[in-house]
Structures are given as structure tokens and as C-alpha cells.
Design brief:
With 488 residues, the chain is α/β, with parallel strands linked by helices. It folds into 3 domains: 61 residues, Beta Barrel (OB fold (Dihydrolipoamide Acetyltransferase, E2P)); 211 residues, Rossmann fold, CATH 3.40.50.150; 164 residues, OB fold (Dihydrolipoamide Acetyltransferase, E2P). 24% of the residues lie in helices and 27% in strands. It has 10 helices and 23 strands. The strands form 4 sheets. It has an 8-stranded mixed β-sheet with strand order 7-22-23-21-20-17-18-19, sandwiched between helices. The chain has a 7-stranded mixed β-sheet with strand order 10-9-8-11-12-13-14. Strands 1-5-6-4-3-2 form a 6-stranded mixed β-sheet. Helix 1 runs parallel beside helix 10.
Length: 488
């Protein structure tokens, strides 16, 4: 049995030689590789061991002995406690350099893929304040918080600098209702977001159905409380000298509650006995104000998103992502368009690519397992009168979906796939390998899974074009848009 050389909490002084994946610096000590969070290349730091594994040691900077000239002061007082950001200790241009290098190395090392020469990252126009949605977890004291760098309990956050301050203020106000005891500990998380033309929406998840039902009965009192000024007698105000704001009924246009559904009798386990997406939605949403759809607008296209559904949280960079995806299908940027056949938009969400492609005259089949996204896409397609656009509530993790699509629409001219972090499903990869179209556009939120999927497809597809999109500045995350051509 191999004995680990270091224990959790050990303090080690090391020199960081380079930057690797996950926003960690790479150092070596006593023949062991250390991956150090919060450090920059060239720095000497004191780091605390977080986890000692067989191949490497994870550590986190606790003191900078010799700083890099590229180190900067963090604009957020919560940095180092809150686990949401990774790069607030260096400049934004330097972050992009680190991300590109890490993604390039992952493609080569993990996928055996040679990225196209000169590929680069499209920077975000707003490195701070760019998010239009935040998900908070209540602290044990009932404050709005995020998951911490260390430990399991969330840490309170007064104002998340990645989003406009109104979102943090609304989360604090939502949890302040009836404290202590009525809310806070009963809430599992809150989502606050902007939609439409600056309207605000609040969504609250409860641990138990009875808590949501009780608050639904008190809806009038709860809404009145939310509509009071943030600096009112029962409200909260933001820290760091930021002026207080009002959340009025004119700006707070949507408030909804949700809680877990009971599984079917006799079934056990996560999601056991739940209906398929085509049959019924999952968790119930009690709308107190507004509808069960939020409006999003990108590049002149309107999207109808379920109040508890997913949509890109960085509008500026999402427009870049949309442009690159459409170019992969229709051509542009020095790349030819694909043929005139149907397009399959897989993992399509509310129709980020499907709706503008359908509006442009393409026959498009969107596939998505989240029922709220499917119904929202269908509603918008009907509003636009797009008989050439269809949304299907199918699970791409299950075999047979590709056959259903090709039976109904024929062979596609192009496939657009924007999978979750785990990447393309095995049944889909197998179908693409044997019956895939001439053009494949893959949008990935994880360079490592993109590298794995590119490797799986390498015998049948060549990566022709690659662009990074920095959807999440200050964090280690990077979106990749790859355009693949089938090898004849």
C-alpha cells in the first residue's frame, strides 16, 4: 500500500513553474507534482495541501512569498472564501492566456487532437458584472451564500461582483422574509435573474413541499415584503458602500416557488418512477407573480425560457456563441455553409440555435430532455409560424433517438450539439460515427470532455475550426465551439 507523502492541511513552500488546467499552478516538490490554486507562474507561495492523490497533490495558496508582476488585488472581499471565482488575483488578459494554454494542452494530451493553427478565445466585453442569473444557497444563519473554497457550509456573500448588484440584493431580500424561522433554513436555494428588458425574477426551491405550500398561502404578504425598499426596516442593504436600491412591483415581474415531487408509490432512488419528458414536467412550480416563462433576447431572436429552466447566463458572450454556431451551419468567417438538408439541434435547450436556424428557412429538429425548455421552444415556434421547426422531448442518453430522427426527417446536412458538462452521450457518438452528417458543430462547456469527444470521433471527423468563448470571466471555465468535417 502506497503511503501518501503529505497530509491534508500540511503547509508547503513551492515555486510555481507553469499554469495548468482548473486554474491551478504546477509545482514540484520531492518528486511530487503539486497543483496549486490561487497561484501564478513564477511565484513562490506557501500552500496548504487539500488532497493527496496517487498522481498529484492538490493544494491552495495561503500566503504569497514572492508575487508575480501579473498579480493584482481582488475587487471582491469574499475572494478566497467563496468558491465561485478562480482568477480574481490576476488581470483579465492574463486569464485568457492561461485558459487558452490549458485548453490547448488538454486537447493534445487528453484527446490526441491537434487544434487548428491560430485558434483563439473570444473575450468577454464585461469581465465583471456580466451574469444575468445567480443561484444562491442559504447559510445556516439564513443569509444568501455560495459554496465555499473550504468546508461544506455555504458562506454569506453581500454582493457577487460577477452580476449587477440588484441580483444579490433581491436574494437577500427574499431570504429576509419572516426571519428567523419562517424561511431561510427551509429554503434549499434561490435563483435571481434578469430577463426581458431588465425585469427581475425570483425563484425559490424548498426542501419540503409543505414549506412552499405554506408560503404560497401567504403570497400576498410575501410579495408586499419583496416590494419594499431594500433599505427598509425589514430589508437589507449592500455592503462596501454601494447605494441601496428599491425592488418595486414594476421591476420585480416574476416570483415563483418550487419543491420536490413525490416519486411514484413503491419506487425508490433518485428520480425513480418519474414520467418521461414527453409525458409531464418534473417538479411543480407555483407562480406567485408573472408567468411560468421568462423572456430572453439574443442577436434579435426572442426565447421563451421556463422559469426554472436553463439559458446562457452571459448575454454578451452568448451572442458570440450564437454567431459562431450559426456560422458553423450557414457559413461565414471564412468557412463554407453546409448543405440544404435538415439540421438536428441536439441538447437544444430553449432553442438557442434552432429558432434562428428555423427562422432562416432551415428544416430543424431540436431534441432536449427538459420539458420546460421543449414547451418554451414550441410556443415560440408557433408564435413565429415556423412549421419547419420542431422540438422533441427525448433523452439523448438513451439509444434509438438518432434512428427516430432520421426516420422522420431523413439524413441531416448538419448536426449542432450543445451537451451538458459530461459531453456527448455514448449512443450519440456511436450514431455519429456510423451515420453522421458531413458537418458537425459541437459546443462544449468543458475542454476536457470536448477533447474526449473529439478523440472518439477522430476516425470519422476532422476538427476544422475551433474558437473559445469566455462565457465566465474570473473562473476557470471556458466554452469551445468546434466545427468538424466528415472524413471521406
Amino acid at each position: 500500500m502506497m503511503i501518501q507523502p503529505y497530509q491534508t492541511g500540511d503547509l508547503l513552500e513551492v515555486v510555481v513553474e507553469s499554469m495548468g488546467a482548473q486554474a491551478r499552478g504546477v509545482a514540484h516538490l520531492g518528486g511530487h507534482t503539486l497543483l496549486v490554486a490561487g497561484a501564478l507562474a513564477g511565484e513562490r507561495v506557501e500552500a496548504a495541501v487539500e488532497k493527496a492523490a496517487a498522481g498529484h497533490i492538490l493544494a491552495r495558496t495561503v500566503r504569497v512569498v514572492t508575487p508575480s508582476p501579473r498579480r493584482t488585488a481582488s475587487p471582491c472581499p469574499h475572494y478566497g472564501e467563496c468558491g465561485g471565482c478562480d482568477f480574481l488575483h490576476t488581470s483579465y488578459p492574463h486569464q485568457l492566456e492561461i485558459k487558452r494554454q490549458a485548453a490547448h494542452e488538454q486537447l493534445v494530451r487528453l484527446g490526441g487532437v491537434t487544434p487548428p493553427e491560430g485558434w483563439d478565445i473570444a473575450a468577454c466585453s464585461r469581465p465583471l458584472g456580466y451574469r444575468d442569473r445567480l443561484d444562491f444557497t442559504p447559510t445556516p444563519q439564513g443569509e444568501a451564500g455560495f459554496h465555499p473554497v473550504k468546508g461544506s457550509l455555504p458562506v454569506a456573500v453581500s454582493w457577487c461582483r460577477l452580476a449587477p448588484p440588484e441580483l444579490s440584493a433581491l436574494a437577500h431580500q427574499g431570504l429576509a422574509y419572516g426571519q428567523p424561522g419562517r424561511m431561510g433554513r427551509e429554503v434549499s436555494r434561490l435563483r435571481v435573474q434578469q430577463h426581458g428588458r431588465g425585469e427581475l425574477a425570483l425563484l425559490i426551491w424548498f426542501f419540503h413541499a409543505r414549506d412552499g405550500e405554506r408560503l404560497a398561502r401567504e403570497a400576498g404578504e410575501f410579495l408586499a415584503f419583496l416590494d419594499r425598499a431594500v433599505d427598509g426596516p425589514q430589508g437589507v442593504s449592500l455592503a462596501d458602500g454601494h447605494p441601496s436600491m428599491s425592488l418595486t412591483s414594476a421591476s420585480l415581474t416574476s416570483v415563483a416557488l418550487t419543491w420536490p415531487v413525490e416519486t411514484r408509490k413503491g419506487k425508490k432512488g433518485r428520480g425513480a418512477g418519474r414520467p418521461t419528458p414527453e409525458e409531464n414536467p418534473a417538479d411543480p412550480v407555483q407562480v406567485l407573480r408573472g408567468g411560468d416563462r421568462l423572456e430572453k433576447n439574443l442577436g434579435g431572436t426572442r426565447y421563451r425560457v421556463a422559469v426554472d429552466g436553463f439559458f446562457q447566463t452571459n448575454p454578451a458572450s452568448a451572442e458570440t456563441l450564437l454567431k459562431l454556431g450559426l456560422q458553423g451551419v450557414e457559413g461565414g468567417g471564412g468557412f463554407p455553409g453546409c448543405g440544404s438538408g435538415p439540421v438536428f439541434d441536439l441538447y437544444c435547450g430553449a432553442g438557442l440555435f434552432a429558432i434562428p436556424l428555423g427562422a432562416g428557412g432551415r428544416t430543424v429538429a431540436g431534441v432536449e430532455s427538459h420539458w420546460g425548455a421543449v414547451t418554451g421552444g414550441r410556443e415560440e415556434a408557433r408564435r413565429l409560424g415556423l412549421d419547419n421547426l420542431a422540438f422533441h422531448g427525448w433523452n439523448l442518453e438513451e439509444p434509438g433517438v438518432w434512428q427516430r430522427l432520421t426516420d422522420r426527417y431523413g439524413p441531416p446536412a448538419c448536426v449542432v450539439a450543445d451537451p451538458p458538462r459530461r459531453g456527448l452521450s455514448k449512443p450519440l457518438v456511436q450514431a455519429l460515427a456510423h451515420q453522421g452528417p458531413p458537418r458537425l458543430v459541437v459546443v462544449s462547456c468543458d475542454p476536457a470532455t470536448f477533447a474526449r469527444d473529439a478523440s472518439r470521433l477522430a476516425d470519422h471527423y476532422r476538427l476544422e475550426k475551433l474558437t473559445g468563448v469566455d462565457m465566465f470571466p474570473q473562473t476557470r471555465h471556458l466554452e469551445l465551439v468546434g466545427v468538424f468535417s466528415r472524413i471521406k
